[in-house]
Hints:
By secondary structure, this protein is an alpha+beta fold. The chain is 61% helix and 16% strand. Strand 5 and strand 6 form a beta hairpin.
Amino acid sequence: DGRPDALTDAHDGGEAFVAHVAIVRRLAATRAADLVAVDVGGLGGVIVPVGFYGDVATLVLAGPSLALDEHTRLVLRTLASLSGAALENAHLLESVNEANRRKDEFLAVLGHELRNPLAPVVTALELWAQRSARDPSAHDARDRKLYDVIHRQTQHMIRLVDDLLDISRITRGTLTLKRERVDVKDLVGRACELAS
């Protein structure tokens, strides 16, 4: 009949109100495609459907002089569209943050899981070096060369795993920096070795 639907609920000094959720949902569900004019305790009001991800939420506005002329309808539809986009963006941000948190957890677990198998290799290399130090004739030059390759590559793997763990610590905000003096000659030598 063109008259606004009546909502009986509390309102705050005639300027704002909180409509009963069941009534708002019922009205929005029956006319989700367009604006719904309502009467709230003598106030003019409108229920604005806000679409996001195929669902419909409702935005309820009221005021003593709220008229639904074409300009107001255009403004409310624009508001509904922007509100829907904001809801979708908030949902996307939440999804991205959750995926990022899971990635950080994965990196931390991966770093620790990669470090575990390296421990016995490092121990075996240390035992080999100790034996060579006690008895230089225990290993020939070819063995020493193999040891050097395995030791160097193991140290490289340890540095990679440490870097992976550092990335995890950085993303969680738990990285601590240790300051120490270094010999620039050794630093350049190691960098050249890694580059070759």
